């Protein structure tokens, strides 16, 4: 019987995932302490488009996107029939990019996160393409997918206590992906785990602790250390700070920003809190009913969203010290639509404060509000957005529109 670690090594004895990265050595991430990434000059690059791999970029740019999602559609099957959870999402992240994905519960953002590593339940229908460093995750064999998880891309889940094994010590759990993907001994892997703990601000003596002996913030740091264990190119943080208090949340966010900068990792951060995403990420994408309704520079989207739904999300966060906002909090009436019975036209039109007659009959896709900013609203005029960008005019502050403003 072949040992599990041996199956993950190539004929030269290197870990397969590192052999895969060696093809793109100029774009590889800096290895974690003690983690060597080898290269092989004799390894041949497959022809463009072969084996699910995207062709090399043209036009003088040698940087291949870390993550490329193309027309992703995800449909769950249940007792109620087919339920479309994601309806045509397209996103691109280059090395070092940070993207915030926001929206109400049930909008599909966590489904997108699970799809990136093919963690969706059996029977789920997934179409489109998810390219990780040019290779289609959806077309990979399970053996290759297993080699990519943790080493090519990793995920930080919302509930660290539910993600960690309660009967294993912390160092052993951090060391597990290192042993699996790099084939080194348990003792050396646990020594690496202690180094990773130091990088995320955990003392070495916590290596022998069990998850229940740690605070919520410490457990979340353990999850981040596990995500970094094999020097991935991409980290997906799914509501990683939602259950933490404000002080611990700030520490974890600061840690994520520091690690992204130092390691040049692409980060997708999922949250319902636009203020957190605007502070942490360069770009912000807002989802509603399985689709993107706005996508642009995070601080500008937060300060002057163009889509009424994104405006409502921004306006839901009061300004500290403003008595007017305290006495008159803003919210959004109604509930998100049932994904099994979506409204016609724009899915947001039953809740929209500035709805027009054509909104109920006209499907709306993302349209340019500016060169680097799109919103899926009939009121968005590309010409006005381009003119504002050309003249350097300030964007309007987020004001929740009313029907009387139309």
TrEMBL record:
Predominant place of localization: membrane
InterPro entries reported in the protein's UniProt record: AAA+_ATPase, ABC_Ni/Peptide_Import, ABC_transporter-like_ATP-bd, ABC_transporter-like_CS, Oligopep_ABC_C, P-loop_NTPase
Comp. bias intervals (Basic residues): 15-24
Domain ABC transporter stretches: 67-314
Residue ranges that the Swiss-Prot or TrEMBL entry lists as coiled coil: none
Single GO biological process annotation from the record: peptide transport
Family: Belongs to the ABC transporter superfamily.
NCBIfam families reported for this sequence: oligo_HPY
Name of the protein this chain belongs to: ABC transporter ATP-binding protein
Provenance organism: Streptomyces lonarensis
